[in-house]
Amino acid sequence: MLVAARANGTTAVATLALGTALFLFWHTFEPAYDTAFAAAGRGPVFYPRILLGIIIVLAATIALKSLFQTSRVQISRRPADAAPDRAGWRALPALVAAIALTAGYVMAFSAAGYLLSTVVYALLLPLVFGYRNPLVISAFAISYAVATWYLFEKVFLIILPKSPWFAAF
Amino acid sequence: MTVTKLGAAAAALAGLAAFGLAQMAQAFPERPVTIVVPFSAGGGTDITTRTLAAPMAEALGSEVLVKNTAGAGGTIGTAEVAQARPDGYTIGMMPVGPMTTQPHLRQLPYGPDSFDYICMAYSAPSSIVVRSDSQFESLENMVDYAKANPGKLNFGVQAIGSIPHVAGLGLVEATGIQIEFIPFKGSAPTFKAMLDGSVDMFVAHISFLTQNADQVKSIAMLSEEPVSTAPELPTAEQQGVALDFPIWGGLVAPKGIPEDARAKLETACQDGMLSDAFGERMGSLRMPVTFLPGSEFEAFVRAEFARNETLLKNAGLSE
Amino acid sequence: MDAALLGLDLILNWQVLLAVTLGTALGVAVGVLPGLGSVVGITMVLPFTLTMGQIPAIALLLGIYCGSVYGGSITAIVINTPGTPQAAATALDGYPMAARGEADLALGWATAASLAGGLFSVMVLMLAAPQLAAFSLNFTSVEYFALGVFALICIAQVSRGSLLKGLLSGAIGMFIATIGVDQVTGDMRFTFGNFQLSAGISLIPAIVGLFALSEMFVRVSERYAPAIQTDFRIGFKIPGWREWRPRLLLLFKSCTIGSFIGALPGTGAATSAFISYAEAKRSSPNRARIGKGEPDGIVSAESANNAVTGSALVPTLALGIPGDPVTAVMLGTLVVQGITPGPRLFTDQLDIVYAIFLILIAANLIMFAVGALGAQAFTRILRVPQGLLMTGVVVIALLGAYGVRGNPLDLIIALAAGVVGFVMRKTGFPIAPMVIGMVLSPMIENALRQSLLLTRGDFWAFFDRPIALGLFVLTAFVLLWPLLGLAWRRLRGTAPDPKSQARGEE
To answer: Is B147 helix (H, G, I), strand (E, B) or coil?
Structure first.
């Protein structure tokens, strides 16, 4: 059961890599890359093409091999992984939430400034882990956001994005 | 409950926003000014900017911060300044490369028209350097050798389309010699390649020449007139080849900043450059202090922009 | 000897001792924070170095330098997120060890190995700087290419489980590094007209995503899994002599690798740590356990990356070629005070050179003390509730990813790398090879194309150069090593025993 899932995952990743590499390989023949300059050093896609070729061969081999193995291997060689994997499906909503939350944070980081976006993110992300102590979470979110903001902006002198609403942050 | 909290927060934000707008009407500068440096911290441009920032802050009566936005030959940081709010609080220390050569190499979201010009902050002469044990004593030596052995000499380049590269293209155009350009990543690897014998020469900043006086020598300073801080070094012009390739940078602001803010920044820039701290730093690297006000700086940038366009086009590098 | 005394005289005053102490502590701090490295430390102290005296300024900078290379290992061990790229190899064994509850011991190994590596390289610098500098000039682009190809073997060595998957991961990493401006022609590659992407995909956001974010996602996805009850030991524990004795040869070998690679400008501590790790994986008697929390892995990586610190000063001082921003600023400080780097520095200004040696030794000792004291706090982090710990880690890691270049695109890159890293970990693709690929790829490509320009397009001319040829032969030898072993046993008529077979599979 698990091995099948693993192998399917492997097949999917390898197939994705294969498809992307094939597309990029095709892309290297675009006229934009036809520069005659620096001929002895080869053109801009000389080296990437070698890498893409290697990726295509490796990805195709892995995809075929895992497809072939899925039908044969029945017993799990790594029983220790079985439990987390089944539990993994149950955690799917939490995982999606964590990714979506982080994506939102990344967008808000430059749009709403570091400090405000971090307070919100640090309030919400612990919930995804099932941590539910509102007092601790709010104290943590605010103090952590302010402390890191101060550390970077004032001590390390790394200027962080500001919100459109305040002059200082 | 969360909804009411959010509502309260939004109301507070709106109130503060109104407060922020009201503040903007007051005299410049009301809050810290940020200078964007399009290269990473610790480099030449960064150190010069930081040396200037302190006395400038004193002259402005407000904090001056330095922000490094590195990447893609300085174009990312330059685009950031071009697209910043034109209020005078975000300005950039823009070097020659991203301002006048990169726009010819590829499509960029800015050009010389995207900026208001505040001041030129530094302009250091460049020089063609060779190893101190090199057979070449002068530009003439080298050109004669190159003519007798076409395509044999290697010319190191710190980055494609950088001023040292453009200077090399200018040399080729002026003398008709054939040399091979070998690109490296930055000046340290280029210097390394000259020491290990891979390349025969490259174009460097005068401070490099000062730093490595033991191991390199200049065969031609690429400036119109003898360099005030190094009058003993012959220029290319004196050797019959007109080449003038200073490595400069200056403060610019996004187009459309209030004139009083621009004028205040210009004055602060001049005061900062006349300060002892700035003068000492420049002097120790044999860099002349060369202030230009905004209007003259703009004319200068446009002239360089046009000249470099021609050189890059003739070399087949420009699109 | 006079020069040594003069050097000692130069550093024995409170400014210098204070500067080196503060610098080292600051270096450890910026190294610990994921994404931040020595460059941030320099940014902070730059205004002071411009005004303070020359020796104190150098002390401050060298402290930051040594501290930051070591600091990255702490985060790598405690939260599986290398604080700096140099510490990526340390995470491979450090984290599994900490996950077992032995963070105190893992930090002990890492700190002691770092100290050994650092002191070893100071010795190299003292004894052989001019010779080593002269030797490094034999390394032209052709040799760098050969060295890069040799280093690629690490990918195979670090690939746990499936060799093919590791190779694919490495090849993808190498490809990712080509996105952005082509160094040789100035053309844009694979940016599809996106201006922000023209800056390329830099290493630090990728590491932050592949390690820190994917770790967070993995933990979220396992929130219903039966928790593994581990008692996380707190503090700092130096392994005893009996543990060290069988590893002395490994330590010596790793220090040598680090010192040698450090002397080549532009290669760096990350490369040397991976090469040294791969060598341990190839030759250590404990190689079957490397990757699962074996001290050999930590010792090889940490001693090699810290051994770079001293020897990186060889090209800086003896040739005037700084290998990174820290040594560049240090060089600037020397020059402003009228000291010219170059071979003559070692004859004319010997007192300054000795002062630098002594500062380096002091920095390494202070680094050890900071690590030992700080371990109390660092290991305690593991007891913070998981939800808060991971939030804190992700926020600071993203902040670091942004801070490197100040480019918001880097945050998106980190997020994408996080999702990619998560999927790879769930499907059994190792992520370390991808990082190695990204580290080595620019060096290999640029060196290859520069070499082709220098030889005017003649690839076969690469083999005319003895050092390059030697490296190519060595590469072939190491690659064929398992086959050679097999052939040797066949020849002697002994069938491979089951134990070594099992080892070969791992």
So the answer is: helix
How far apart are alpha carbons C192 and A33 in whole angstroms? 12
- Check: CB of residue C198 under 8 Å from CB of residue C188: yes
Q: Does A103 share its domain with A81?
A: no
**Nearest CB neighbour to B34, from listed A36, A37, A159:** A159
Q: Which of residues 2-61 of C touch B (CB under 8 A)?
A: 39-40, 42-43, 46-47, 50-51
* Strand arrangement of the beta sheet that strand B126-131 belongs to: B179-183, B153-157, B201-205, B126-131, B216-221
Within 10 A of B260 (CB to CB), how many other CB atoms are there?
Answer: 11
pTM of this structure: 0.87
Show Cβ contacts of residue B42 under 8 Å, excluding neighbours closer than 6 positions: C39, C42, C43, C46, C325, C326, C328, C329
Q: Which long-range contacts (CB under 8 A, 24 or more apart) does C282-286 make?
A: C282/C157, C282/C478, C282/C481, C284/C250, C285/C246
* DSSP letter string, A147-160: HHHHIIIIIS--PP
What are the pLDDT digits (tens) for C206-239? 999 999 999 999 989 888 776 665 677 888 888 9
C300 and C277 in contact (C-beta within 8 Å)?
yes
> Which strand (E) or helix (H) includes residue C124?
helix C103-136
pLDDT, residue B19, reads: 45
Q: Tokens standing for A137?
A: 């979470």
Task: Report residue A101 as tokens.
Answer: 């939350």
| Beta pairing partners, B203 | B128
Angle at C461 between CA C455 and CA C465, to 5 degrees: 110
Q: Look up residue B136 and give its two tokens.
A: 């070449």
Q: Is B17–A159 a contact, with Cβ atoms under 8 angstroms apart?
A: no
**Of A41, A105, A121, Cβ closest to residue C449:** A41
**Sequence ranges of the domains in chain B:** 31-124+247-314, 126-239
Query: Is the Cα torsion angle C215, C219, C220, C222 positive or negative in sign?
Result: positive
Residues of chain A under the 50 pLDDT cut = 1-3, 38, 73-84
CATH number among 3.40.228.10, 3.30.1330.10, 3.40.50.1580, 3.40.190.150, domain B31-124+247-314: 3.40.190.150
Task: State whether ipTM is beyond 0.90.
Answer: no
DSSP string covering B238-272, please?
A: GGT------EEEEEEEETT--HHHHHHHHHHHHHH
Question: For residue A114, what pLDDT is reported?
Answer: 94
